[in-house]
Amino acid sequence: MILGVSAVSLLPRILPVAFLSSFEFPPVLIRWLSYIAPAVLAALAALSVLAPGGEYDFSIGNLYIWAFVPTFITAILTRSLFYSLLVGIGTMAILNNLM
Amino acid sequence: MNRAEIITGIRDSIPIILGYLPLGFAFGVLATQAGMTIIQATVMSILCFTGAGQYIALGVMQAGGAVLTAIMANILVNLRYFLFATSMVPHLRNHVPIKWASILSYGLTDETYAVAMNHYCNHEASTSYMAALNLSSHFGWITSTLLGAFLGANIADTDRLGLGFALPAMYICLLILVINKRNDILAAVIAAVLCIVIGLIWPSTIHNMSNIIVASVVAATIGVLVNE
Questions:
Q1: Mutation for B interface: A11, A14, A17, A76, most B CBs within 10 A
Q2: Number of A–B residue contacts, CB under 8 Å
Q3: Do B13 and B114 reside in the same domain of the chain?
Q4: Which residues of B touch A47 (CB under 8 A)?
Q5: Residues B165 and B204 in one domain
Q6: Quick one: angle between helices A63-78 and A81-98, nearest 10?
Q7: Chain A residue with minimal CA distance to B157?
Q8: Domain-ending residue, one of B143, B170, B197
Q9: Domain range holding B125?
Q10: What is the ipTM of this complex?
Q11: Distance from A60 to chain B by nearest Cα, in Å?
Q12: Relative to the CA of B137, which of A59, A77, B129, B148 has its CA 20 to 30 Å away?
Protein backbone atom coordinates (compact mmCIF):
# COMPACT_ATOMS: atom_id res chain seq x y z
CA MET A 1 0.00 0.00 0.00
CA ILE A 2 2.77 2.42 0.94
CA LEU A 3 4.50 1.90 -2.41
CA GLY A 4 1.27 2.32 -4.35
CA VAL A 5 0.34 5.52 -2.55
CA SER A 6 3.90 6.72 -3.00
CA ALA A 7 3.77 6.18 -6.77
CA VAL A 8 0.50 8.06 -7.25
CA SER A 9 1.63 10.93 -5.02
CA LEU A 10 4.93 11.43 -6.78
CA LEU A 11 4.06 10.96 -10.44
CA PRO A 12 1.72 13.98 -10.76
CA ARG A 13 4.42 16.17 -9.22
CA ILE A 14 7.36 14.91 -11.25
CA LEU A 15 5.90 14.20 -14.69
CA PRO A 16 4.87 17.78 -15.61
CA VAL A 17 8.27 19.15 -14.64
CA ALA A 18 10.10 16.34 -16.42
CA PHE A 19 8.18 16.50 -19.69
CA LEU A 20 6.74 19.99 -20.03
CA SER A 21 9.98 21.83 -19.35
CA SER A 22 11.17 21.50 -22.93
CA PHE A 23 7.97 22.98 -24.42
CA GLU A 24 7.55 26.71 -24.90
CA PHE A 25 4.15 27.65 -23.40
CA PRO A 26 1.88 30.00 -25.37
CA PRO A 27 1.37 33.40 -23.60
CA VAL A 28 -2.29 32.74 -22.85
CA LEU A 29 -1.37 29.54 -21.03
CA ILE A 30 1.26 31.40 -19.01
CA ARG A 31 -1.37 33.98 -18.04
CA TRP A 32 -3.80 31.20 -17.13
CA LEU A 33 -1.14 29.51 -15.01
CA SER A 34 -0.37 32.81 -13.24
CA TYR A 35 -3.88 32.73 -11.76
CA ILE A 36 -3.49 29.20 -10.41
CA ALA A 37 -1.44 30.22 -7.36
CA PRO A 38 -3.89 32.88 -6.05
CA ALA A 39 -6.85 30.60 -6.86
CA VAL A 40 -5.42 27.52 -5.14
CA LEU A 41 -4.31 29.49 -2.08
CA ALA A 42 -7.68 31.20 -1.73
CA ALA A 43 -9.43 27.82 -1.97
CA LEU A 44 -7.05 26.26 0.57
CA ALA A 45 -7.41 29.22 2.94
CA ALA A 46 -11.22 29.20 2.68
CA LEU A 47 -11.44 25.44 3.28
CA SER A 48 -8.94 25.41 6.13
CA VAL A 49 -10.89 28.16 7.95
CA LEU A 50 -14.47 27.14 7.17
CA ALA A 51 -13.96 23.37 7.31
CA PRO A 52 -11.13 22.91 9.83
CA GLY A 53 -11.81 19.25 10.59
CA GLY A 54 -12.92 18.33 7.09
CA GLU A 55 -16.52 19.26 7.93
CA TYR A 56 -18.06 22.68 7.33
CA ASP A 57 -18.62 24.87 10.36
CA PHE A 58 -20.12 28.28 9.58
CA SER A 59 -21.19 28.90 13.19
CA ILE A 60 -19.78 31.58 15.48
CA GLY A 61 -18.40 28.68 17.53
CA ASN A 62 -15.84 28.01 14.79
CA LEU A 63 -12.73 29.54 16.34
CA TYR A 64 -10.89 29.40 13.01
CA ILE A 65 -13.18 32.13 11.67
CA TRP A 66 -12.30 34.35 14.64
CA ALA A 67 -8.58 33.70 14.28
CA PHE A 68 -8.86 34.45 10.55
CA VAL A 69 -9.65 38.13 11.11
CA PRO A 70 -6.49 39.29 12.97
CA THR A 71 -4.33 36.98 10.83
CA PHE A 72 -5.73 38.43 7.60
CA ILE A 73 -5.19 42.00 8.82
CA THR A 74 -1.64 41.18 9.96
CA ALA A 75 -0.86 39.57 6.61
CA ILE A 76 -2.03 42.66 4.70
CA LEU A 77 -0.21 45.10 6.98
CA THR A 78 3.09 43.28 7.46
CA ARG A 79 3.25 40.98 4.40
CA SER A 80 5.32 38.78 6.70
CA LEU A 81 4.81 35.05 7.08
CA PHE A 82 6.44 35.13 10.49
CA TYR A 83 4.15 37.78 12.00
CA SER A 84 1.06 36.26 10.38
CA LEU A 85 1.86 32.85 11.89
CA LEU A 86 2.66 34.45 15.23
CA VAL A 87 -0.64 36.35 15.36
CA GLY A 88 -2.64 33.41 13.97
CA ILE A 89 -1.21 30.79 16.32
CA GLY A 90 -1.26 33.22 19.25
CA THR A 91 -4.92 34.12 18.68
CA MET A 92 -5.82 30.47 18.34
CA ALA A 93 -3.99 29.56 21.55
CA ILE A 94 -5.77 32.34 23.45
CA LEU A 95 -9.17 31.36 22.04
CA ASN A 96 -8.62 27.68 22.79
CA ASN A 97 -7.71 28.40 26.38
CA LEU A 98 -10.59 30.82 26.92
CA MET A 99 -13.36 28.80 25.33
CA MET B 1 25.49 25.24 -5.03
CA ASN B 2 24.79 28.70 -3.77
CA ARG B 3 25.12 29.23 -0.05
CA ALA B 4 22.88 32.29 0.15
CA GLU B 5 20.11 30.53 -1.81
CA ILE B 6 20.33 27.49 0.47
CA ILE B 7 20.03 29.66 3.56
CA THR B 8 17.03 31.50 2.08
CA GLY B 9 15.42 28.16 1.23
CA ILE B 10 15.92 26.79 4.73
CA ARG B 11 14.68 30.04 6.29
CA ASP B 12 11.56 29.96 4.10
CA SER B 13 10.89 26.37 5.16
CA ILE B 14 10.66 27.23 8.87
CA PRO B 15 6.99 28.35 8.80
CA ILE B 16 6.20 25.23 6.75
CA ILE B 17 7.89 22.95 9.27
CA LEU B 18 6.00 24.74 12.06
CA GLY B 19 2.77 23.89 10.26
CA TYR B 20 3.82 20.29 9.59
CA LEU B 21 4.71 19.66 13.20
CA PRO B 22 1.13 19.09 14.48
CA LEU B 23 0.03 17.42 11.22
CA GLY B 24 2.96 15.01 10.96
CA PHE B 25 2.84 14.37 14.68
CA ALA B 26 -0.85 13.53 14.54
CA PHE B 27 -0.21 11.26 11.55
CA GLY B 28 2.48 9.40 13.53
CA VAL B 29 0.13 8.94 16.49
CA LEU B 30 -2.79 7.79 14.33
CA ALA B 31 -0.64 5.48 12.20
CA THR B 32 0.67 3.58 15.20
CA GLN B 33 -2.86 3.37 16.60
CA ALA B 34 -4.00 1.98 13.25
CA GLY B 35 -1.47 -0.80 13.60
CA MET B 36 1.57 0.48 11.70
CA THR B 37 5.00 0.12 13.23
CA ILE B 38 7.07 3.23 13.88
CA ILE B 39 9.23 2.29 10.89
CA GLN B 40 6.24 1.82 8.57
CA ALA B 41 4.75 5.19 9.56
CA THR B 42 8.06 6.94 9.02
CA VAL B 43 8.75 5.19 5.73
CA MET B 44 5.31 6.26 4.54
CA SER B 45 6.15 9.89 5.31
CA ILE B 46 9.48 9.50 3.50
CA LEU B 47 8.02 7.90 0.38
CA CYS B 48 4.64 9.60 0.10
CA PHE B 49 4.88 13.11 1.61
CA THR B 50 1.19 13.74 1.08
CA GLY B 51 -0.59 14.80 4.26
CA ALA B 52 -4.16 14.35 3.09
CA GLY B 53 -3.27 11.21 1.14
CA GLN B 54 -1.60 9.55 4.10
CA TYR B 55 -4.56 10.29 6.38
CA ILE B 56 -6.90 8.83 3.76
CA ALA B 57 -4.74 5.70 3.44
CA LEU B 58 -4.93 5.27 7.23
CA GLY B 59 -8.70 5.65 7.12
CA VAL B 60 -9.01 3.00 4.40
CA MET B 61 -6.66 0.73 6.32
CA GLN B 62 -8.67 1.07 9.55
CA ALA B 63 -11.93 0.45 7.72
CA GLY B 64 -10.41 -2.76 6.34
CA GLY B 65 -10.56 -1.41 2.77
CA ALA B 66 -8.56 -2.67 -0.18
CA VAL B 67 -5.13 -1.34 -1.08
CA LEU B 68 -6.60 -0.36 -4.44
CA THR B 69 -9.16 1.89 -2.68
CA ALA B 70 -6.39 3.76 -0.89
CA ILE B 71 -4.52 4.17 -4.17
CA MET B 72 -7.58 5.36 -6.11
CA ALA B 73 -8.42 7.92 -3.41
CA ASN B 74 -4.82 9.11 -3.52
CA ILE B 75 -4.91 9.58 -7.28
CA LEU B 76 -7.80 12.01 -6.79
CA VAL B 77 -6.20 13.81 -3.85
CA ASN B 78 -2.88 14.21 -5.61
CA LEU B 79 -4.23 15.31 -8.95
CA ARG B 80 -3.87 18.92 -7.85
CA TYR B 81 -0.10 18.49 -7.86
CA PHE B 82 -0.31 18.06 -11.60
CA LEU B 83 -1.73 21.57 -11.77
CA PHE B 84 0.82 22.94 -9.29
CA ALA B 85 3.79 21.34 -11.01
CA THR B 86 2.67 22.58 -14.43
CA SER B 87 2.23 26.15 -13.20
CA MET B 88 5.72 26.05 -11.71
CA VAL B 89 7.37 24.99 -14.96
CA PRO B 90 7.64 28.52 -16.48
CA HIS B 91 9.54 29.68 -13.38
CA LEU B 92 11.93 26.74 -13.29
CA ARG B 93 12.73 26.68 -16.99
CA ASN B 94 16.22 27.99 -17.79
CA HIS B 95 17.01 28.32 -14.08
CA VAL B 96 16.87 24.79 -12.72
CA PRO B 97 18.16 21.88 -14.88
CA ILE B 98 15.27 19.58 -15.85
CA LYS B 99 16.90 16.61 -14.15
CA TRP B 100 17.12 18.40 -10.80
CA ALA B 101 13.76 20.12 -11.14
CA SER B 102 12.13 16.72 -11.72
CA ILE B 103 13.84 15.02 -8.80
CA LEU B 104 13.20 17.94 -6.43
CA SER B 105 9.52 18.08 -7.42
CA TYR B 106 9.28 15.04 -5.14
CA GLY B 107 9.05 17.67 -2.40
CA LEU B 108 6.19 19.62 -4.00
CA THR B 109 3.30 20.06 -1.55
CA ASP B 110 0.59 22.70 -1.04
CA GLU B 111 2.95 24.52 1.30
CA THR B 112 6.25 24.30 -0.58
CA TYR B 113 4.36 25.26 -3.74
CA ALA B 114 2.86 28.34 -2.12
CA VAL B 115 6.12 29.49 -0.58
CA ALA B 116 8.15 28.83 -3.74
CA MET B 117 5.67 30.57 -6.07
CA ASN B 118 5.72 33.57 -3.78
CA HIS B 119 9.53 33.56 -3.83
CA TYR B 120 9.61 33.27 -7.63
CA CYS B 121 7.38 36.35 -7.96
CA ASN B 122 10.43 38.52 -7.41
CA HIS B 123 13.40 36.14 -7.37
CA GLU B 124 14.75 33.78 -9.99
CA ALA B 125 14.39 30.10 -9.25
CA SER B 126 17.55 28.17 -8.41
CA THR B 127 18.41 24.55 -7.76
CA SER B 128 19.89 25.43 -4.36
CA TYR B 129 16.76 27.26 -3.20
CA MET B 130 14.42 24.56 -4.43
CA ALA B 131 16.52 21.82 -2.84
CA ALA B 132 16.82 23.60 0.51
CA LEU B 133 13.13 24.48 0.71
CA ASN B 134 11.77 21.10 -0.35
CA LEU B 135 14.26 18.89 1.47
CA SER B 136 14.09 20.70 4.80
CA SER B 137 10.28 20.77 4.64
CA HIS B 138 10.27 17.04 3.91
CA PHE B 139 12.73 16.51 6.75
CA GLY B 140 10.31 18.36 9.06
CA TRP B 141 7.44 16.13 7.91
CA ILE B 142 9.46 12.95 8.50
CA THR B 143 10.76 14.08 11.89
CA SER B 144 7.32 15.08 13.17
CA THR B 145 5.89 11.72 12.01
CA LEU B 146 8.68 9.90 13.80
CA LEU B 147 8.06 11.93 16.97
CA GLY B 148 4.33 11.26 16.82
CA ALA B 149 4.86 7.54 16.25
CA PHE B 150 7.33 7.37 19.14
CA LEU B 151 5.47 9.40 21.71
CA GLY B 152 2.03 8.18 20.75
CA ALA B 153 -0.80 9.60 22.76
CA ASN B 154 1.34 10.51 25.78
CA ILE B 155 1.62 14.13 24.80
CA ALA B 156 -0.61 17.02 25.78
CA ASP B 157 -3.00 18.07 23.07
CA THR B 158 -1.48 20.46 20.55
CA ASP B 159 -4.76 22.37 20.17
CA ARG B 160 -4.10 24.37 23.30
CA LEU B 161 -0.93 25.72 21.73
CA GLY B 162 -2.89 27.06 18.76
CA LEU B 163 -0.75 25.08 16.32
CA GLY B 164 -3.89 23.96 14.53
CA PHE B 165 -4.00 27.42 12.99
CA ALA B 166 -0.45 27.28 11.61
CA LEU B 167 -1.41 26.07 8.13
CA PRO B 168 -4.50 28.31 7.72
CA ALA B 169 -2.37 31.31 8.80
CA MET B 170 0.24 30.35 6.24
CA TYR B 171 -2.30 29.99 3.42
CA ILE B 172 -3.83 33.37 4.32
CA CYS B 173 -0.50 35.19 4.32
CA LEU B 174 0.77 33.50 1.15
CA LEU B 175 -2.48 34.38 -0.60
CA ILE B 176 -1.89 38.05 0.25
CA LEU B 177 1.68 37.75 -1.02
CA VAL B 178 0.86 36.21 -4.43
CA ILE B 179 -1.76 38.85 -5.25
CA ASN B 180 -0.07 41.28 -7.61
CA LYS B 181 -2.76 42.45 -10.00
CA ARG B 182 -6.44 43.23 -9.88
CA ASN B 183 -7.50 40.01 -11.60
CA ASP B 184 -5.60 37.97 -9.00
CA ILE B 185 -8.15 39.15 -6.44
CA LEU B 186 -10.97 38.18 -8.79
CA ALA B 187 -9.49 34.70 -9.32
CA ALA B 188 -8.95 34.30 -5.57
CA VAL B 189 -12.49 35.30 -4.61
CA ILE B 190 -14.07 33.10 -7.29
CA ALA B 191 -11.93 30.11 -6.29
CA ALA B 192 -12.69 30.50 -2.58
CA VAL B 193 -16.46 30.83 -3.06
CA LEU B 194 -16.66 28.12 -5.70
CA CYS B 195 -14.58 25.68 -3.65
CA ILE B 196 -16.90 26.15 -0.66
CA VAL B 197 -20.06 25.87 -2.78
CA ILE B 198 -18.87 22.71 -4.54
CA GLY B 199 -18.03 21.22 -1.15
CA LEU B 200 -21.53 22.04 0.09
CA ILE B 201 -23.18 20.37 -2.88
CA TRP B 202 -20.87 17.33 -2.98
CA PRO B 203 -19.35 16.90 0.51
CA SER B 204 -17.14 14.05 -0.67
CA THR B 205 -15.11 16.49 -2.78
CA ILE B 206 -13.72 18.07 0.40
CA HIS B 207 -11.97 14.87 1.33
CA ASN B 208 -10.49 14.15 -2.08
CA MET B 209 -9.87 17.86 -2.67
CA SER B 210 -11.28 17.74 -6.18
CA ASN B 211 -13.28 20.88 -5.27
CA ILE B 212 -9.98 22.77 -5.06
CA ILE B 213 -8.97 21.62 -8.53
CA VAL B 214 -12.31 22.46 -10.16
CA ALA B 215 -12.57 25.85 -8.40
CA SER B 216 -9.00 26.81 -9.36
CA VAL B 217 -9.39 25.81 -13.00
CA VAL B 218 -12.64 27.78 -13.34
CA ALA B 219 -11.23 30.82 -11.48
CA ALA B 220 -8.05 30.92 -13.59
CA THR B 221 -10.10 30.64 -16.79
CA ILE B 222 -12.31 33.55 -15.73
CA GLY B 223 -9.17 35.51 -14.81
CA VAL B 224 -7.86 35.08 -18.37
CA LEU B 225 -11.22 35.87 -19.99
CA VAL B 226 -11.83 39.08 -18.04
CA ASN B 227 -9.79 41.97 -19.42
CA GLU B 228 -6.91 43.08 -17.27
A1: A17
A2: 282
A3: yes
A4: 195-196, 199, 206, 211-212
A5: no
A6: 160
A7: A96
A8: B170
A9: 3-170
A10: 0.89
A11: 17
A12: A77
Instruction: Report whether pLDDT(A76) > 60.
Output: yes
The more confident residue out of A65 and B209 is A65
Q: Are residues B144 and B206 in the same domain?
A: no
A54 interaction partners in chain B (CB closer than 8 Å): 206-207
What pLDDT score does B23 carry? 81
Contacts of B49 in chain A (CB under 8 A): 9
Domain ends where: B170, B195, B210? B170
Question: CB of B126 within 8 A of CB of B96?
Answer: yes
Distance between alpha carbon B202 and the CA centroid of its chain, in Å? 22
Q: Measured between CA atoms, how close is A61 to chain B, in angstroms? A: 15
d(CA B119, CA B129): 10
Question: A48-61: per-residue pLDDT in tens?
Answer: 899 887 788 999 88
Q: Are residues B122 and B86 in the same domain?
A: yes
Residues of A in contact with B83 (CB under 8 A): 36, 40
In this prediction, residue B44 carries a pLDDT of 94
| Close Cβ partners of B33 (under 8 Å, ≥ 6 residues apart) | B152, B153
User: pLDDT (tens digit, 9 = 90+) per residue, B117-159?
Assistant: 989 988 999 999 999 999 999 999 999 999 989 887 565 566 6
Residues B19 and B100 in one domain: yes
Partner-chain residue, chosen from B54, B160, B172, that has the shortest CB–CB distance to A96: B160
pLDDT by residue (tens digit) across B7-39?
999 999 998 898 888 888 878 888 887 888 999
Residues across chain A? 99
B18 lies in the same domain as B114: yes
Residues B141 and B183 in one domain: no
Same domain? B94 vs B143: yes
Q: Looking at residue A54, what DSSP letter applies?
A: S
What's the structural domain count of chain B?
2
Longest dimension (CA), chain B: 56
How much is the pTM? 0.78
Distances (CA, A) of B188 to A29, A39, B118: 18, 4, 15
Task: Report the residue from B50, B162, B216 with minimal CB separation from A40.
Answer: B216
pLDDT at A92: 92
